[in-house]
Design a protein that fits this description.
mainly alpha; single chain; about 0% strand
């Protein structure tokens, strides 16, 4: 029996060696596959770096350009606002000055015109009542009979 024990023990040892060899082959295969996958991932990463990185840099540059343009547009809009406000103020001052320049003399002219109209109307009334001609002819005035009404 002892010989059977040694034989079985030898069979177990051989099986363990075969199992270890198979596991070693499988592990070597896994390592090689892992290395191939790692190389492939490195290739993909390199390709992405070559293709995507410039695009990302372009996007960054575009973003900076848009920011600069927005800032410039805001600055220009503020300048235009100040310019328009100054222009409106100048126009309002000009209109006020023009109004004073024109309306001042026109106001005095309106006063003179009112006096002239009053004088004309007075002369018309005097003529209607028989003014200068009645004095030259020596005739009585047409309203002589109404003098008792005036106190």
């Amino acid at each position: 029996m002892e010989s059977w024990g040694v034989i079985l023990l030898a069979v177990i040892a051989v099986c363990c060696l075969v199992q270890a060899a198979v596991q070693t082959v499988v592990l070597v295969g896994l390592v090689r596959s892992g290395q191939r996958v790692a190389r492939r991932l490195d290739d993909i990463q390199s390709q992405l770096d070559r293709e995507i990185r410039p695009l990302l840099q372009n996007v960054g540059q575009i973003t900076r350009n848009v920011s600069d343009i927005s800032e410039l547009a805001l600055h220009r809009a503020k300048r235009i606002d100040v310019l328009l406000a100054a222009t409106v103020e100048t126009l309002e001052d000009g209109v006020a000055t023009l109004r004073r320049s024109v309306m001042g003399p026109l106001g005095r002219l309106a006063d003179v015109t009112a006096v002239v109209r009053g004088l004309r109307r007075g002369v018309e009334v005097y003529r209607q009542l028989g003014g200068f001609e009645a004095q030259r002819k020596g005739t009585t005035r047409r309203y002589a009979e109404d003098e008792h009404l005036f106190i």
